[in-house]
Amino acid sequence: MVPNPRHIRRLLLVAAAGAFIYIQVRHFSAQSHDAGRLALAGADQPDLSVAAVVIMACNRPDYLHRTVESILKYQKAVASKFPLFISQDGTNGEVKNKALSYTQITFMQHVDLEPVHTESPGEHIAYYKIANHYKWALDELFTKRNFRRVIILEDDMEIAPDFFDYFEAAAKLLDTDKSIMAVSSWNDNGQKQFVYDPKALYRSDFFPGLGWMLTKSTWMELSPKWPKAYWDDWVRLKEVHKDRQFIRPEVCRTYNFGEHGSSMGQFFDQYLKPIKLNDAHIDWNSEDLSYLSEDKFLIKFGKDVANATPVHGSDDLLKAHNLYVDVRIQYNDQGDFERVARQFGVFEEWKDGVPRAAYKGVVVFRYKSSRRRIYLVGPDSLRQLGV
Questions:
Q1: What is the spatial distance between Cα 379 and Cα 154, in angstroms, rounded to a whole number?
Q2: Are residues 128 and 266 in the same domain?
Q3: Catalytic sites, residue numbers
Q4: DSSP assignment, residue 279?
Q5: At how many degrees (to 10) do helices 93-100 and 61-75 cross?
Q6: What pLDDT score was predicted for residue 166?
């Protein structure tokens, strides 16, 4: 009997299909085995990262280049601990090309083509775009990529040599002390004439920003109610930080060179250009930072303020100049604080009843780059300090 050609073709097709299925099942099984092996291996490996570092960028490729080069100078040695990201808001081609030219940096792009509706006529829409970009980027890093901590930088910053060591030491504080909301590398009164000790750190009731680290749990709290604009001033509201405080250094670990940006160079010549960027080598891993705990810092800072020599009268600057000890000058209200601050040249600005860099209403700075401290003390500060 002659075999039916159609029947033979059908048998060959069935055999080929069977072989194909067998090969695919073996391949899938091998992949699953490898994936499981890698997953188990990963489970044995702890997460070595301290924090993701994100540079917030928009449309300044030259600024971005300067910032990235400054960061890479010190990040290469600790790349596994501080994975680096650039988050671009918008579609500027030069910025995107610059970001993509760095193979060791992960690029993220936020494109929102929806029109911006400001709450008041004449408002600068840039502040709305910035707030929207921040929320998107932090949601991406904390929620989608599951980082435990994130350090936020902007595309107009240079960093100090000990920037990463500082934040690694500070990460332990964030994890253990829930009265600390964030850690900053910035001091608003960090101009050369007002600083002396590169090891000195302080608690502050005022959010400094400009190079800061927060935890995932804090972001999960902030994200659902993130504001449409002016996000940094929003964080400074008492209803938002809820009496939690911020760690800041005496000597800045970031330098802001952004003369041209959304704030149109406001305060640049007076407050930003003279900032002292730390250049001293500090071994933060060997520093005991337990004095920054809420109870210890309150006692220590209170004693320092109490031991300072009181200065009274209208010519505070002259009287402080003629003394060679720490001094404290009491102000009565915001207007009085602005008058005294203006004499010395420190920041006069308040937000929600808190002067910049203040702790319990006290603003402290060095006198003419010396060891001496000047304390500007609020009307209720001594009581809050328990003095």
A1: 36
A2: yes
A3: 232
A4: -
A5: 20
A6: 98
Least Cα distance to 189 among 11, 340, 365 occurs for 365
CB 75 within 8 A of CB 82: yes
Side-chain-side CA neighbours of residue 276 (13 Å) = 19
Q: Is beta strand 52-57 parallel, antiparallel or unpaired with respect to 149-154?
A: parallel
The DSSP letter of residue 112 is -
Q: Could you give the maximum distance between any two Cα atoms of the chain, in Å?
A: 124
Regions of the chain where pLDDT drops below 70: 1-47, 260-266, 313-314
Structural domain of residue 162, as residue ranges? 52-117+124-278
Q: Are residues 190 and 249 both part of a single domain?
A: yes
* Full DSSP string of 321-356: HT--S-EEEE--SHHHHHHHHHHHT----EETTEET
| H-helix or E-strand spanning residue 215 | strand 212-215
pLDDT tens digits, residue range 121-160? 889 999 999 999 999 999 999 999 999 999 999 999 999 9
What is the β-pairing status of strands 327-330 and 350-351?
unpaired
Domain count, the chain: 2
Q: Which amino acid is at 276?
A: K
Phi-psi region at 367: left, alpha or beta (left = phi > 0; alpha = psi -120 to 50)? beta
Residue whose token pair is 């671009």: 88
- Residues 204 and 264 grouped into a single domain: yes
* Distance of alpha carbon 237 from the chain centroid: 17
Radius of gyration of the chain (CA): 27
How much is the pTM? Answer: 0.86
